Amino acid sequence: MTVEATAFTGKKLVPAVVAQLLVDLQHNLHHHTAHTKTRGEVAGSTKKPWRQKGTGRARVGTKRTPLWRGGGRVFGPTSERNFHHKINQGMISRALNTLLVDKATAGEVLILDQPYTGTAQTKNSLQFLQGTLDPKSNLLVISGAEPALTQAVRNLPYIVIRQVDQINLLDVARARHIILLPQALPQLIDRLK
C-alpha cells in the first residue's frame, strides 16, 4: 500500500539545495588516503653532498632535494587534506522531508500491513516483502530492533535496512522503493516534525 504525500507535512526545500546537500554528504564520506613525503619527511642525511664551490658541479645542500631521485615531492597530495563540508542539521531534516514527499508523490513510499513474524531466513523475508521490492534498490525502514528480519535480508545487496532514527538523506535518495513497517510511519513523521 502506498503512502500519501500529505503524510509528510514539514517544510520543503528547493531541489537545487537538496542536490547540494547530497553532494556535501558524499564529500563528508570521502577520506583522503593519498600521501607523498615532502623533503622534510623522506629518509636521508642532511649532510651537504659536496662543497659549495670549486667542484664544477651544481650547488646542492641535501640529498633530500626534490630534484634528485629519492628526494621529497613538491606539492604532492597529503593526508591532511580535509574534504569535510559543514552542513546545517535543520536543512538535513527539511531535505529529508522534501525527498520523502517527492518519492511518495511518485508512489515509491510503501507501507506494509502487518509486522514481520517470520524466521531469520531469507526465503521467508522475500515472501513477506513480495510485491513491494524493486529489483535494483530498496530501503526497508523498521521502528525498532528486528533481529530476525535484519538477519534475513542482510545478504541481499538490493535491500538496505535502517531504523527510523538511522535514516539519512543518501539512503533515501539512492533507494527506488522505501518500504515502511507498520509502526515506522508514525515514528518517521514524529522525527520530521
Structure described in brief:
By secondary structure, the protein is an alpha/beta fold. It contains six helices and four strands, in the order H-H-E-H-E-H-E-H-E-H. The protein folds into two domains: 5-13 and 87-192, Ribosomal Protein L4, Chain: A, CATH 3.40.1370; 31-82, no CATH class.
Task: Give a description of the structure.
The protein has 193 residues and is an alpha/beta fold. The protein has two domains: 5-13 and 87-192, 3-Layer(aba) Sandwich (Ribosomal Protein L4, Chain: A); 31-82, no CATH class. The protein has six helices and four strands; from the N terminus they run H-H-E-H-E-H-E-H-E-H. It has a four-stranded parallel β-sheet. The protein is elongated and about 90 Å long. The mean pLDDT is 89.
Annotation keywords:
single chain, 193 residues, alpha/beta, Ribosomal Protein L4, Chain: A, 2 domains, 4 strands, 9% strand
CATH C-level name of the largest domain: Alpha Beta
Shape: elongated
CATH names the topology of the largest domain as Ribosomal Protein L4, Chain: A
Helix content: 25-40%
Mean pLDDT, to the nearest integer, reads 89
How big a fraction of the residues is strand? 5-15%
Number of domains: 2
The SSE string, one letter per element, is HHEHEHEHEH
User: Which residues sit in consecutive blocks of at least 5 with pLDDT less than 50?
Assistant: none
Sketch the major β-sheet. Answer: 4 strands, parallel
Give the termini distance in whole angstroms.
23 Å
How many strands appear in the DSSP assignment?
A: 4
What structural class do the secondary elements suggest? alpha/beta
Query: What's the total helix number?
Result: 6
